[in-house]
Amino acid sequence: MTVLFPKWTNKIPVFAALGAACKGLVVIFVVWFWFSPKHIDVGYQPEQPILYSHKLHAGLLGMDCRYCHREVESGPHATVPDADTCMGCHKQVKNDSDRLTLLRDNYGDGSGDNIPIPWIKVHLLPDYAYFSHAVHMNANVGCTSCHGRVDQMEIVRQVEPLSMGWCLECHRAPEAHVRPAGVKPTDMAWTPTEASIAAARERLTRGELNPPTHCSACHR
Amino acid sequence: MSLMPKFTLLLVALALGACRGGTSTSPPVHLVLDMDFQPKLKSQSESSFENWTDRRSMRLPAEGTVARGSLPDPILMPDPKSAGRNPDGSWISRNPLSLNAETLERGRERFDIYCSICHGLSGRGGNGPEGHGLVGRRWPVAVPNFHAAEGKDNRVANLTDGEYFEVLSSPVGRNTMPSYAARISVADRWAIVHYIRALQNLGKQ
Asked: What pTM value is reported for the model?
């Protein structure tokens, strides 16, 4: 006689009950872990139209970030440099490199459509959130706090989630990110010291620094 | 299979599948679109308006117009058509920006950002293995030295303040040196000239 229901099937109701209990936990875990900006946003590293390397220019050649990201101190956007900034040097240096063909083609000499180089934006906030580099530069928050060690990246990668929780985490306790007056915001190797943390706390209590946590500061 | 291995298998699968912190070339997923992308143009974004063939959302000002507040300052630019010169055509000999700790500090900062990579932090220039700037070392021609040295061609060290200013204001730069006219503001250019003088005085000691 064939057994229609083998013996192990007796356990099905037990498994079903256990599964139902676990499912809730698994769903919570999946959403918490995989839907978090720490998972879906961090690590974005698009292929750029030109194989441009920060490790070479900002690291090895020691160029200051502000040579290229010129508006970082005065405007909301740091801005990506125009072809003229690159060509200032690359008319002389490596002017026959294959990796710079697109740059030479797009350089405005009157020919062609003069289309800017289609760099792909890496760090992108939703359009409803307001962010300004200038205020953070005034407070002397360094680039590394939000972009990581760009001077060690061949291709730029997003290292922070840029989520609201991340913004607020720093706004509630920015001491370790605020640099003392003598230190450049573009100094990549700087790490906080006890003295710098104490000085920042002093500025916070005196009210010189006011990182906002009210909604209308960032949603205006 | 008993329950334990199944559960561990599940955990292993979760841990492996997560790949948190790994890199990806595909853009982040927007789980809920909300108003993440609004039909407005931000700085340096691309425009699809068909009449703008260069696709820039940031437009150039109409030809022959001057934006409010961008007229040349009569003290810093006495002759708006010819930077670094007095209206009578002579070179400005005395830096019109008042010299104080603040302007000097500003000049140092701007010099370190824009000039030091070629001319060196000390302003001693040069190219090849002896060059003082890291980019200057790779330059095909020698980057001039701002410091006068005995038995050398000291033309650049002896230029007037106005001539330094003119090099920074020229829309084509100077020979192989790039132009900074669009990148450094008029006041910052004079602040840099102050700092070059300070470097020269330090070099004499």
From this structure: 0.91
